[in-house]
């Protein structure tokens, strides 16, 4: 029989009081793929990431991780099952060093030797973080903060990595550096769901794309097909 997909959303509904932020959103993410979530401000992208990681309650529908319903589990339990979020705005501990921030991502782990190995692996993805290892997070540039936030998420050894706007506010050269690392992380076998404002960039980076419009899924498909379809490209990507 077919293995269950890494992630499956079924008719997911999330509300903030009277605001329905997600309205029956359904899609599937296959293991080892990169799925990008595109949409305007307020479309529900961050809410989607929070719902998957357990930071906002689900009003209806299901979230399946490798076939297993997780929508009623705590965020901590989901980390243990292999989901990690690098949140929008990064949320590092400003007074802690880069290394200490990274180790915070491993706080649920008991395998200290392997934690050190993973730290080295993250410095491999982001050599800049090794150079800044002893700096307090508050002294980092925006790009370095982003790298540190992604690294911290990786320290829980996720099978599913959620990245909320990793390129937000970064200079083009730094964006390329972050993208190169995301590609590498994906090639090493981690499944990735990524929120990205820059649709063209996002489609080049991903295998699969979903478009949210005011809480509803308006398009889902292979990133290549979307990039190569002139009508869709015009509607979602604007002018080249
Ligand atoms: P952005 O790119 O601006 O972060 P987004 O696509 O991530 O946008 P969300 O942040 O998920 O969108 O917001 C979706 C909708 O839910 C918006 O209408 C927003 O105003 C509303 N919303 C988000 N968080 C809350 C909250 N804590 N309380 C009330 N409404 C909220």
Q: Taking all residues together, what is the mean pLDDT?
A: 92
Q: Ligands bound here?
A: adenosine-5'-triphosphate
Using only CA atoms, what is the Rg? 17 Å
Calculate the terminal CA-CA distance, rounded to whole Å: 43 Å
The succession of helices and strands, N to C, reads: EEEHEEHEHHHHEHEHEEHH
The percent range for strand residues is: 25-35%
- How many distinct beta strands? 10
Order of strands side by side in the largest beta sheet?
6-7-8-3-9-10
Specify the number of helices. Answer: 10
What's the main sheet like?
6 strands, mixed
Structural classification: alpha/beta
Low-confidence stretches: none
As a percent range, the share of helical residues equals: 25-40%
Q: Which overall shape is indicated by the principal axes computed on the Cα atoms?
A: globular
Describe this structure in words.
- The structure is a single chain.
- The chain has 240 residues and is an alpha/beta fold.
- It has helices at 45-53, 75-81, 98-104, 112-125, 127-131, 142-154, 172-187, 199-205, 223-228, 230-237, and strands at 7-16, 19-29, 34-38, 60-65, 68-69, 83-86, 160-164, 191-195, 208-213, 216-222.
- It has a 6-stranded mixed sheet with strand order 6-7-8-3-9-10, with helices on both faces. Strands 2-1-4-5 form a 4-stranded antiparallel sheet, with helices on one face.
- β1 and β2 (19-29) form a beta hairpin.
- α3 runs parallel beside α6 (142-154).
- The longest helix is centred in the last third of the chain and has 16 residues, at 172-187.
- Adenosine-5'-triphosphate (ATP) binds at residues 16, 19, 21, 39, 41-47.
